[in-house]
Description:
alpha/beta; 7-stranded mixed beta sheet; 6-stranded mixed beta sheet; 9 helices
Amino acid sequence: MTQQSETTAGPVAAREAAATAGPVTARDDDAPAPLTPLSSPSPPSSPSPLSSPSPLAPPAPPLAEPRPPGERRKWPRSFHDRLTSPLPGLKALARFAREGSVRPGKEGLADIPRLPVAPAPAPRVDARTVAVTWAGHASWVVSIGGLTVLTDPVWSRRILGTPARITPVGVPWEELPRVDAVVISHNHYDHLDAPTLRRLPRDTPVFVPAGLGRWFLRRRFTRVTELDWWEAAELSGVRFDFVPAHHWSKRSLVDTCRTLWGGWMLTAPDGQRVYFAGDTGYGHWFSRIGQRYPGIDLALLPIGAYDPRWWLSEVHCDPEEAVRAALDLGARRMAPMHWGTFVLSAEPVLEPLTRVRAAWEKAGLERDDLWDLPIGGSRVLE
Length: 382
């Protein structure tokens, strides 16, 4: 099956579809798999307001033993029990049809020419250096532990059910270094893009949420690892931990929450950590992730697609919530994403950037620790 034959849209448009959930139980347990302690990461080189631990904080739970790569597993038919809140019912859908909007007005679109864009190749770094390049939306080129990892790669100009991207891709595909691995947060079209993934060699290691492996196997990918929340796998000494998110999944009219959703914690052999949140609302998972993975060097957090708030607050952070999430995580730095690429909701296109900068300053955080990159921009962890 190709993307053209699949029949729903990205996260905001798909949320508009008539998809109601059964009974919902917020999942508060932290460990679906047996846990085994591993060595702790190296301590931070310098303190930061984001990473100062509370003297009363409990010790970090032990991490899961990495699972075998490419393991074939059986999963439940549905992950509805992982929802933080119910999906919208008929009343919400009727209200959205009556008063909602998924696109800014003319004034909100007027700033498209002012969106920060600086397409460039990703920096080449050695195995001891961590670097990130924002390709747009939730797509990053992450250099860590000598690997080049793509997150939710979307290089297409247009995705199903969504207007064409309003800014160019930050890194031309032909200028990418060799891709060593891909991580996928969930199956919405603006995060799982079939045309982009078809560009990859089929033996590229892919790390995906529980239940999503079949999608890749049908497309002849041969090194696919599915993980549940709090589970991990390793590749060339780099740990890939799958962690919870406040979101959901849907790709067709009949598969609501049939696959899991979440974020990824990438940990280098020397303990440097990059957290990729994927797509998420704000909630209790951030503090739990921060407790389990202390010393996060960089958090890649979504700040866009949040208006109208009554419709999207459960599944998308606004800029102020993203800053709060960085504090909950204890992250030393934050890089905003999930804005300035596709028009998925009603806020003015430049508003996420101005609001996240104001929220960061209001929180009294160091300006240099907010990596508000242009699309195509890169930063290297010193």
